Amino acid sequence: MKTPDFQSYSVNLTVSFDPDVPVQDRDSIKVSFTNLTKNYSKTAYTDAEGKVSFTNIEPGFYSASLSASFVANGGNDYLNGLKKVDVFSEVNDTIPTTLSKSNAVIIKEFYYSGCLTPAGKYYSSDQYIEIYNNSSTIQYIDGMSLVEDQSYAIAPYYFSYIKDSIVVRMIWSFPGNGNDYPILPGQNIVIARDAIDHKSDPNGNPLSPVNLSKAEFEFYVYSISGGDFDSPTAVNMIEDLFTFRGSDVVFHTRGGSAIALVKIPGDSAQRKKYIDNHLVAKVGSNRYYGVIPDSYVIDAVEVTWDEAHAVYKRFPVEIDAGYTYVSAGSHSGKCIRRKVKEVVKGRFVYQDTNNSCNDFLKDATPKPWINEW
User: Fold this and answer.
1) Over the stretch 220-255, which tens digit does the pLDDT of each residue have?
2) pLDDT tens for each residue of 11-26
3) Is 175 within a domain?
4) Based on the domain organization, do 222 and 93 belong to the same domain?
5) DSSP label at residue 6
6) Domain span at residue 88?
7) Secondary-structure breakdown of the chain: helix, strand, coil percentages, each rounded to the nearest 5
8) Between β-strands 238-242 and 165-173, what pairing exists: parallel, antiparallel or unpaired?
9) Which of 57, 177, 195, 335 could pair with 111 as two cysteines, CB 3.0-4.6 Å apart?
10) CB burial class (10 A; 0-12, 13-18, 19+) of residue 227?
11) Residues 45 and 92 in one domain
């Protein structure tokens, strides 16, 4: 009989349930146990007491995650849990969980990887974020903001001591006074880095996968030199915070940009005052970042480089219990896109369990404004 290549251990976990989770829904919840270094998973199911066990586990660094839904108060509630587990001996531990509901406005698609030009050069001016009205009623995006976490998730999170908040390097806000920018049920809105037809424009790239000439909004960075393109057809987002201000907004093409849609209370002046009064810096640095309470977050997508970098997860499980990424890598021309849950009377309803591990397709072809399975 072959001698095992490693000493194996047992991992015994107990799910910590919120009291609002019905007793009958606590049994048979799928738990994934993922090796963060070698990128493989094992699965098991809870018993009626929320206990689950994994055997013959090799030493290493793991994450235990779960996502489940149940009906409560006439709607769906979602239970998410995530726990980092180091296995170097037998483990007995608890998986904390959080309850959440679906959001009306969601981040549907995030194209950040960029692509290559015919000459093999890097091109990322075609990056964009697409948001979607996932509800059956009109939603207004006036005063909402798109933010990017300050960390690229390549090292332990510096601001982990700030609880119940996210710390961001950029805050770009939609203009409007409350009802100027409606999104109809099932409508997509694109916020482009540069709102041009990247396939045919002389300043574009014929190998780009997207035409963004009809983008509703644009990240435009004003400067006297006029370094950034200003589309005459797209509405400019409002620059409220840009810690590493350059000539353009650039998302990490490998996948380090974790983004969120937030709503800071008040009008534009009150929002700016709030941001100015809630800035933090790293010791020895004069660069300041914005602090946004979790309660202001409408939707969030934790984006990492790969499974191994998930150990440096930034967003709290309350706003995103998981993470996702483009496995094809930087400049692959691929994006992450939310999965379709169902179609109701012709309106696409996208999956929104507040767990990006479950909610997103990893290597989708960018298709702004298109809803399909």
Assistant:
1) 999 988 889 999 999 999 999 999 999 999 999 999
2) 999 999 888 788 888 8
3) yes
4) no
5) S
6) 9-100
7) 5, 40, 55
8) antiparallel
9) 335
10) exposed
11) yes
